[in-house]
């Protein structure tokens, strides 16, 4: 494609007049899980129109070439817990390119537009769920926490002998449920507040079973959302429970839900959990899944893992300012970071003065220089990975190795970021 053709492109907001073209691109960009019947496509269009008109946290954008829509995406305004404080963050989702315009750098241009949009808004942290992690890694996005899937029979769940106050959540109690979710977000690094589309799916999916736990004042202090799944084609008697969401404000509530799941062993074959809690397997005397897979030497599979959410800092100095409340281990250290940008190949310098654990970005002097890529620094900043973890893999280099332990302690955070938001 020549330069003249590229200059004729424009990225702008979409509205209901673009829904037909939007749907065509969206369905063909992700065809394997779409129903291409007219009825299904019309239902999808209704959903898109509803989100456009009712969810202020979601904005639809498209790339036009000669007024023809050739690429689409949704941008999300999130509220995320970042080291104990709720801050604005952004998300990119549903990025799709028309099949006739693949390999023309349309996706790259859309991502760059997204980053500039939020950089200009003063929102330095972005997140996305990658279809191709390597594509986004080359654009400076770093990998977040892994998702773990456990498949366990109900009788492996711990016994619970406490008070059973579980019941199905009524529709007029959903406000209480959302307040419970907000309280959990407020104390969980990386979690995001629910946006309108998530709430709508919560209430509109007829297959959802929503069970709540209630405190002595009648408030919801935890809930589990699950659905039944057929576990073997042609045999309706084999059923699994797929846990879509498990939210709890204390460990007694967690144990209560596990006890509830244990009682389903007369009809349920497996309970399927998806969790970013890396210690989840300690709950079970036998955490082995149903695969029977063996890994030398003497290890048997307990769960499967998946890479998902990726993060990028669009403005590193602004990110430190936004998270100025974080205590970096009471550290007193001056660090010069040389951060190489994967796209431009430029090296950006930032000197951070850590004084009594607080980060300041106006320093001039430094004790140690660290060289790192934007993608890895983004993961480090959000505590998805440690300094020592990066160093042992050769992904961060120090000019004075005697500062390694101190720098590792500086960036240590007890909780990796978790993200259960589907966008």
UniProtKB/TrEMBL annotation:
<dbReference type="Pfam" id="PF13527">
    <property type="entry name" value="Acetyltransf_9"/>
</dbReference>
<dbReference type="InterPro" id="IPR016181">
    <property type="entry name" value="Acyl_CoA_acyltransferase"/>
</dbReference>
<dbReference type="Pfam" id="PF13530">
    <property type="entry name" value="SCP2_2"/>
</dbReference>
<dbReference type="InterPro" id="IPR051554">
    <property type="entry name" value="Acetyltransferase_Eis"/>
</dbReference>
<protein>
    <submittedName>
        <fullName>GNAT family N-acetyltransferase</fullName>
    </submittedName>
</protein>
<dbReference type="GO" id="GO:0030649">
    <property type="term" value="P:aminoglycoside antibiotic catabolic process"/>
</dbReference>
<feature type="domain" description="N-acetyltransferase">
    <location>
        <begin position="9"/>
        <end position="160"/>
    </location>
</feature>
<dbReference type="InterPro" id="IPR036527">
    <property type="entry name" value="SCP2_sterol-bd_dom_sf"/>
</dbReference>
<dbReference type="InterPro" id="IPR041380">
    <property type="entry name" value="Acetyltransf_17"/>
</dbReference>
<dbReference type="InterPro" id="IPR025559">
    <property type="entry name" value="Eis_dom"/>
</dbReference>
<dbReference type="Pfam" id="PF17668">
    <property type="entry name" value="Acetyltransf_17"/>
</dbReference>
<dbReference type="GO" id="GO:0034069">
    <property type="term" value="F:aminoglycoside N-acetyltransferase activity"/>
</dbReference>
<dbReference type="InterPro" id="IPR000182">
    <property type="entry name" value="GNAT_dom"/>
</dbReference>
<keyword id="KW-0808">Transferase</keyword>
């Amino acid at each position: 494609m020549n330069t003249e053709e590229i200059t004729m492109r424009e990225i702008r907001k979409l509205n209901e007049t673009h829904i037909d073209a939007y749907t065509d691109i969206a369905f063909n960009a992700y065809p394997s899980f779409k129903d291409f019947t007219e009825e299904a496509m019309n239902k999808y269009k209704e959903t898109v129109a509803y989100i456009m008109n009712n969810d202020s946290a979601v904005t639809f954008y498209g790339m036009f070439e000669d007024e023809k829509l050739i690429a689409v995406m949704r941008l999300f305004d999130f509220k995320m817990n970042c080291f104990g404080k709720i801050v604005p963050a952004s998300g990119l989702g549903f990025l799709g390119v028309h099949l006739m315009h693949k390999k023309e750098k349309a996706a790259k241009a859309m991502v760059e537009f997204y980053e500039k949009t939020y950089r200009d808004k003063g929102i330095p942290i972005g997140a996305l769920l990658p279809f191709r992690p390597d594509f986004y890694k080359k654009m400076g996005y770093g990998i977040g926490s892994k998702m773990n899937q456990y498949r366990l029979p109900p009788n492996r769940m711990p016994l619970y002998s406490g008070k059973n106050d579980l019941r199905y959540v009524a529709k007029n109690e959903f406000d209480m449920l959302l307040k419970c979710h907000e309280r959990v977000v407020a104390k969980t690094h990386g979690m995001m507040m629910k946006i309108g589309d998530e709430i709508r799916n919560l209430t509109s999916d007829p297959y959802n079973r929503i069970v709540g736990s209630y405190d002595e004042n009648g408030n919801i202090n935890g809930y589990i959302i699950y659905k039944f799944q057929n576990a073997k084609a042609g045999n309706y008697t084999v059923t699994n429970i797929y846990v879509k969401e498990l939210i709890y404000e204390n460990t007694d509530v967690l144990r209560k839900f596990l006890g509830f799941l244990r009682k389903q062993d007369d009809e349920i074959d497996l309970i399927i959990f998806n969790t970013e809690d890396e210690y989840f397997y300690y709950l079970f005397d036998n955490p082995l899944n149903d695969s029977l897979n063996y890994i030398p030497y003497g290890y048997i599979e307990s769960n499967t893992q998946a890479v998902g959410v990726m993060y990028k800092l669009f403005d590193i100095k602004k990110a430190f300012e936004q998270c100025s409340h974080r205590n970096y281990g009471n550290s007193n250290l001056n660090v010069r970071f040389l951060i190489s940008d994967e796209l431009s190949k430029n090296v950006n310098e930032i000197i951070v003065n850590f004084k009594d654990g607080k980060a300041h970005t106006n320093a001039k002097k430094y004790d140690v220089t660290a060289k790192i890529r934007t993608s890895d620094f983004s993961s480090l900043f959000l505590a998805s990975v440690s300094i020592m973890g990066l160093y042992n893999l050769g992904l961060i280099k120090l000019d004075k190795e005697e500062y390694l332990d101190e720098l590792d302690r500086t960036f240590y955070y007890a909780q990796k970021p978790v993200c259960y938001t589907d966008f």
